[in-house]
Specification:
Length: about 240
Amino acid sequence: MDLKEALVLRSLDYKDSSKILYLYTDEGLKSVIAHSVKKMNNVNRFLSQNGNLIKLSYSRGDFPSLKEGELVNDYPNVKKDLVSYTYMNHIMELIGNTIPKDSDHEKLYSFVKRLFLLFDQGIDSEVLSFIFELKLLYFLGYGLNFKECNICSNKEDLVFSIDNGGLVCSEHLSINQASYGPEVYINILKLYAIDINKTEIPVLENIDKTIVRHIIDVLYGDYVGYKTKSRGIIKQIQKY
Ligand SMILES: [Zn+2]
């Protein structure tokens, strides 16, 4: 039987011994009931953990149930590291709650898979999460403009403005608008534009990470309007 690969975004207890698995695949989001999966002798018991990459077959219909399943990767190094695992969940919450149905899931799915492999190799999960969040903005239709002033197309004397979703020249920056110079926005641009299949993930100083985190949070507050539970947990762990 043909098995479909999927990422377990989260699972929810259902009745006494079953779970509902919320999955992301190259075709988009999918939920599947895993009957009796909580019983000790159930062969699919180990599949349902958040952040597992699995292969499965399921019945047809509006609310399909899991038939066969196997584990592809449980990212063991991520699961051992609280910060890394929380960032992974942060990304999965964003996928589950912000991705429109008609998105290019094939592209996003393969990007996320590559990203989680890098997570498991011990690359800084915070920086990887920045990359995801910045690219997700583009994906959701809020691409950032790093080419020229957003208003007059001037290419000199530019600063990054969150309100303008990109660069503006000094003439078009309002007095009360928060803005960031090249030393800050160069990091955002680098992460926003990176091809994670080809380029090594940049290393960021803690001070730079704090600023990038702040800018991304404000961008999400202004444009996406969705905040994950994991972001709250990260704040408790890292204090920013
Ligand atoms: Zn301008």
